Amino acid sequence: MSVSSHSPFADTVLLLFKHSLREQQGELARAMDKAQKEIRAIADSGPGDVVDDSRDNASKEAVFASYSQSRTQLRKVELALDRISAGEFGVCAACDGAISLKRLQALPWASKCIECQEQSEQSRIH
Ligand SMILES: [Zn+2]
């Protein structure tokens, strides 16, 4: 089965990315599951004394933060997997040029090449 289309990379490269993204997807899903259980456990523990309450709030916030971090990361991973399935992986969405392999290894969900990304960041600042 071939996954290639517009992508500048060989199928084997795409499969490697796909494999590692799937692993990350699984890990993030597990992390979210764990955080959800912790949130439920904190909610179920009910009202304690004042000292416990403040500690519970702090840990609740930490769990919520890690949950939302995992969710954000999971969206990015899914975006990268979508781009692989669509044959758009490694193709810049702005200039249609190739995104460098090095950049994709750091940010597999990058949808723009480094030049276009820098341009859009600069125009956002100014
Ligand atoms: Zn570009």
Explain this structure to me?
The chain is mainly alpha-helical. It is 70% helix and 0% strand. It folds into 2 domains: 10-89, Four Helix Bundle (Hemerythrin (Met), subunit A), CATH 1.20.120.910; 90-126, no CATH class. The protein contains 4 helices and no strands. The longest helix has 36 residues, at 50-85. The protein starts with 10 loop residues before the first helix and ends with a helix. The structure holds zinc ion (ZN). Zinc ion (ZN) is lined by residues 92, 94-95, 97, 112-113, 115-116.
Spell out the blueprint of helices and strands.
Blueprint: H1 11-44, H2 50-85, H3 101-106, H4 114-125
Helix pairs in contact: 1-2
The structure holds zinc ion.
Give descriptors for this structure.
4 helices; Four Helix Bundle (Hemerythrin (Met), subunit A); mainly alpha; 0% strand
